[in-house]
Protein backbone atom coordinates (compact mmCIF):
# COMPACT_ATOMS: atom_id res chain seq x y z
CA UNK A 1 0.00 0.00 0.00
CA UNK A 2 1.37 3.44 -0.89
CA UNK A 3 0.33 7.01 -0.21
CA UNK A 4 1.13 10.11 -2.21
CA UNK A 5 1.87 13.20 -0.09
CA UNK A 6 3.02 16.42 -1.79
CA UNK A 7 4.22 14.47 -4.81
CA UNK A 8 6.34 12.03 -2.78
CA UNK A 9 5.45 8.38 -2.84
CA UNK A 10 5.70 6.93 0.65
CA UNK A 11 5.50 3.29 1.56
CA UNK A 12 2.88 3.14 4.29
CA UNK A 13 4.01 -0.35 5.26
CA UNK A 14 7.33 1.05 6.51
CA UNK A 15 6.99 1.39 10.32
CA UNK A 16 9.07 4.58 10.31
CA UNK A 17 6.65 6.22 7.89
CA UNK A 18 3.69 5.22 10.06
CA UNK A 19 5.46 6.64 13.13
CA UNK A 20 6.16 9.94 11.35
CA UNK A 21 2.55 10.20 10.17
CA UNK A 22 1.37 9.22 13.66
CA UNK A 23 3.62 11.85 15.25
CA UNK A 24 2.25 14.58 12.99
CA UNK A 25 -1.34 13.54 13.66
CA UNK A 26 -0.62 13.34 17.41
CA UNK A 27 0.79 16.88 17.40
CA UNK A 28 -2.41 18.05 15.71
CA UNK A 29 -4.56 16.11 18.19
CA UNK A 30 -2.69 17.71 21.08
CA UNK A 31 -2.92 21.16 19.53
CA UNK A 32 -6.63 20.97 18.78
CA UNK A 33 -7.47 19.42 22.16
CA UNK A 34 -7.05 22.97 23.44
CA UNK A 35 -9.74 24.16 21.04
CA UNK A 36 -12.07 21.23 21.74
CA UNK A 37 -11.95 21.24 25.55
CA UNK A 38 -11.55 25.02 26.01
CA UNK A 39 -9.35 24.86 29.14
CA UNK A 40 -9.50 28.00 31.26
CA UNK A 41 -5.98 28.20 32.68
CA UNK A 42 -2.60 28.04 31.00
CA UNK A 43 -1.62 25.00 33.07
CA UNK A 44 -4.78 23.15 32.04
CA UNK A 45 -4.13 24.00 28.36
CA UNK A 46 -0.61 22.55 28.62
CA UNK A 47 -1.98 19.49 30.39
CA UNK A 48 -4.68 18.90 27.75
CA UNK A 49 -2.17 19.36 24.93
CA UNK A 50 0.37 16.90 26.32
CA UNK A 51 -2.16 14.40 27.65
CA UNK A 52 -3.93 14.13 24.29
CA UNK A 53 -0.68 14.16 22.29
CA UNK A 54 0.76 11.31 24.36
CA UNK A 55 -2.49 9.33 24.19
CA UNK A 56 -2.61 9.60 20.41
CA UNK A 57 1.08 8.87 19.91
CA UNK A 58 0.91 5.80 22.16
CA UNK A 59 -1.86 4.54 19.89
CA UNK A 60 0.31 5.01 16.79
CA UNK A 61 3.32 3.35 18.44
CA UNK A 62 1.15 0.37 19.36
CA UNK A 63 -0.12 0.13 15.78
CA UNK A 64 3.50 -0.14 14.64
CA UNK A 65 4.27 -2.72 17.35
CA UNK A 66 1.22 -4.74 16.34
CA UNK A 67 2.20 -4.53 12.67
CA UNK A 68 5.75 -5.71 13.40
CA UNK A 69 4.46 -8.49 15.65
CA UNK A 70 2.01 -9.69 12.99
CA UNK A 71 4.71 -9.62 10.30
CA UNK A 72 7.03 -11.72 12.47
CA UNK A 73 4.50 -14.18 13.90
CA UNK A 74 1.65 -14.06 11.43
CA UNK A 75 -1.96 -13.50 12.35
CA UNK A 76 -4.59 -16.16 12.40
CA UNK A 77 -7.62 -13.93 11.87
CA UNK A 78 -9.93 -16.52 13.37
CA UNK A 79 -7.79 -16.99 16.47
CA UNK A 80 -5.83 -13.83 17.41
CA UNK A 81 -3.65 -13.95 20.52
CA UNK A 82 -4.52 -12.08 23.69
CA UNK A 83 -1.54 -9.76 23.21
CA UNK A 84 -2.66 -8.92 19.66
CA UNK A 85 -6.17 -8.12 20.86
CA UNK A 86 -4.82 -6.02 23.73
CA UNK A 87 -2.43 -4.11 21.48
CA UNK A 88 -5.21 -3.54 18.94
CA UNK A 89 -7.66 -2.33 21.60
CA UNK A 90 -5.24 0.11 23.22
CA UNK A 91 -4.03 1.33 19.81
CA UNK A 92 -7.61 1.94 18.72
CA UNK A 93 -8.34 3.87 21.93
CA UNK A 94 -5.20 5.96 21.40
CA UNK A 95 -5.71 6.78 17.74
CA UNK A 96 -9.37 7.68 18.19
CA UNK A 97 -8.61 9.95 21.15
CA UNK A 98 -10.23 7.85 23.87
CA UNK A 99 -7.07 6.58 25.60
CA UNK A 100 -6.62 9.67 27.83
CA UNK A 101 -10.26 9.59 28.94
CA UNK A 102 -10.10 5.83 29.48
CA UNK A 103 -6.95 6.13 31.62
CA UNK A 104 -8.50 8.99 33.56
CA UNK A 105 -11.64 6.91 34.10
CA UNK A 106 -9.64 3.92 35.32
CA UNK A 107 -7.65 6.10 37.73
CA UNK A 108 -10.83 7.79 38.99
CA UNK A 109 -12.55 4.45 39.44
CA UNK A 110 -9.65 3.10 41.48
CA UNK A 111 -9.75 6.21 43.67
CA UNK A 112 -13.51 5.86 44.18
CA UNK A 113 -13.16 2.17 45.03
CA UNK A 114 -10.34 2.91 47.48
CA UNK A 115 -12.45 5.60 49.16
CA UNK A 116 -15.46 3.25 49.38
CA UNK A 117 -13.27 0.49 50.83
CA UNK A 118 -11.83 2.91 53.38
CA UNK A 119 -15.32 4.00 54.44
CA UNK A 120 -16.47 0.39 54.69
CA UNK A 121 -13.46 -0.55 56.83
CA UNK A 122 -14.11 2.45 59.11
CA UNK A 123 -17.71 1.33 59.59
CA UNK A 124 -16.61 -2.24 60.34
CA UNK A 125 -13.98 -1.18 62.88
CA UNK A 126 -16.30 1.36 64.58
CA UNK A 127 -19.19 -1.11 64.89
CA UNK A 128 -17.17 -3.54 67.04
Question: What do you see in this structure?
Answer:
Helix content is 76%, strand content 6%. By secondary structure, it is mainly alpha-helical. A hairpin with a 2-residue loop joins β1 and β2. Strands 1-2 form a two-stranded antiparallel sheet. The protein has one domain. α1 runs antiparallel to α2 and α2 packs antiparallel against α3.
Features:
4 helices; 128 residues; 76% helix; mainly alpha; two-stranded antiparallel sheet
**Whole-angstrom Rg:** 20 Å
Give the domain tally: 1
Encode the helix/strand succession as letters: EEHHHH
Q: What count of helical segments does DSSP give?
A: 4
pLDDT < 50 runs, ≥5 residues: none
- The coarse silhouette is flat
Outline the secondary-structure elements.
Layout: E1 2-5, E2 8-11, H1 15-37, H2 42-73, H3 82-95, H4 99-126
Antiparallel strand pairs: 1-2
Short description:
About 75% of the residues lie in helices and about 5% in strands. With about 130 residues, it is mainly alpha-helical.
Amino acid sequence: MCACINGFLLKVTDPRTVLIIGFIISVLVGRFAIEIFKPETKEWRIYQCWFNFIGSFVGWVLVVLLYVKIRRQGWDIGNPSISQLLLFSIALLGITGWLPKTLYGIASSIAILAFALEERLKKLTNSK
